[in-house]
Design goal:
The chain is mainly alpha-helical. It has 18 helices and two strands. The chain has a two-stranded antiparallel sheet with strand order 1-2. The protein is globular and about 70 Å long. The N and C termini lie far apart (53 Å). Keywords: Membrane, Transmembrane, Transmembrane helix. Pfam families: DUF418, HGSNAT_cat.
Length: 390
């Protein structure tokens, strides 16, 4: 009986961390949508042409789920390094070291997932590089981050086809190198998504006006991106130009970067707005998944590998795994498991492990006197990742 008060206090702390006034629960909801979109892209038949027919809408998860998560990674980077206020110069070295170590651990976990042979393009190695590439921008404010992200988004899609054609990718070690750097999510283009997310994280995301602005800005980019693709498709005949001026999923084309980037911004804004309403409570199970995205991502790939090995004797099976109907039981299991863990234990196991490792190696994040750590106040994890199907 003596342990009951301690258990009650523990549950109260877990709930406060999960749903306390300092946490941006809308960001968790957006992460959950990215994770579930990833699951659908992996395990459902999404190879369809998007039309007004609702049965084709499942194809929206292709590409957009991973881009949403890349933008959310940038949001979390800003939240754990000061939120609206960029870290002061004296704090940046430690903040950079913490992020770099997280990236290194993500790279190791990502390569371990690659070695399972599960037929997905694991995004974690790309995330590791993106974290490192984001370090020089930690001191920038929102406006500057958005401008840099826009510049990269407009320029790099024109250069990416040249990089894709480099002889190194067709060499004997091309596939291994591609997996090691996550080239299916090419960092020269994808750093734009992370920087845009960092810009979002430097906003006051608790303000209704900022949330609505994200929806409006994202919607405008969706119109420009996908509208541009529709307008240019009939008139562009040059092969190089068609490679650039496309909104195709996972193409890193100009219109995909603009349109899907806008989709991510709008989704984050909508999630933040929804969590101002009673839907905040309805979404608790989804938010639990979004509170531990790395754990959810790794678990779903490991379950896939085990099921595929048991049923087909090969972890690289994809058609049979999809036909086995794994998506729904795995999704339900993740939602139940993550909800129970979040409410009874707290942070996800992998998120907890990485945070503990960073604290041991680098030390706790320094805080401004009288001001709580942004990591604690926002409850932001930068350890998540998603990947798309091969």
């Amino acid at each position: 009986m003596a342990s009951a008060p301690g258990l009650t206090a523990h549950l109260r702390r877990s709930w406060t961390r999960f749903d306390g006034p300092g946490r941006l629960v809308g960001v968790d909801l957006a992460r959950a949508l990215a994770v579930l979109g990833m699951l659908a892209a992996h395990l459902l038949d999404t190879d369809r042409v998007l039309t007004s027919d609702p049965s084709t809408w499942i194809t929206l998860v292709n590409g957009r789920s991973s881009i949403l998560f890349a933008v959310l990674a940038g949001v979390s980077v800003s939240l754990v390094t000061g939120g609206r206020r960029p870290p002061a110069p004296e704090r940046r070295p430690r903040a950079a070291a913490r992020l770099a170590l997280r990236g290194a651990v993500l790279w190791v976990i990502g390569m371990m997932l690659v070695f399972t042979g599960v037929p997905v393009y694991v995004i974690l190695p790309a995330y590791a590089l993106l974290f490192v590439l984001a370090l020089p921008f930690l001191g920038l404010r929102a406006r500057s981050l958005f401008l840099v992200a826009a510049g990269i988004a407009l320029v790099m899609p024109w250069i990416q086809p040249v990089l894709d054609a480099a002889p190194i990718w067709s060499g004997p070690a091309g596939d291994d190198l591609s997996a090691a750097v996550g080239w299916h999510y090419p960092f020269p283009v994808w750093i734009a998504f992370v920087l845009a997310g960092m810009g979002v994280g430097r906003l006051d995301l608790r303000r209704l006006s900022e949330q609505a602005s994200l929806v409006l800005a994202g919607g405008s980019l969706i119109i420009v991106g996908y509208g541009g693709a529709l307008l240019t498709a009939p008139v562009v005949t040059d092969r190089y130009a068609r490679t650039v001026l496309t909104a195709g999923d996972h193409s890193s084309g100009l219109w995909e970067v603009i349109g899907s980037g806008g989709f991510a911004l709008a989704t984050i804004g909508i999630c933040l707005l929804l969590c101002r309403t009673p839907l905040r409570w309805v979404a608790v199970p989804l938010r639990a998944v979004g509170s531990m995205p790395l754990t959810a991502y790794v678990v779903q790939l490991l379950v896939w590998a085990l099921v595929s090995l048991e049923l087909f004797g090969d972890t690289s099976e994809i058609v049979g795994v999809r036909e086995s109907g794994l998506f729904f039981p795995l999704t339900i299991g993740l939602i139940i498991g993550c909800t129970a863990w979040a409410l009874l234990v707290g942070r996800g196991p992998l998120e907890m492990f990485i945070d503990a490792l960073v604290r041991v190696v680098v030390g706790a994040d320094a805080t401004t006197p009288g001001r709580p750590s942004s990591a604690a106040s926002e409850g932001a994890d930068v350890s998540g990742g998603v990947g798309g199907p091969r």
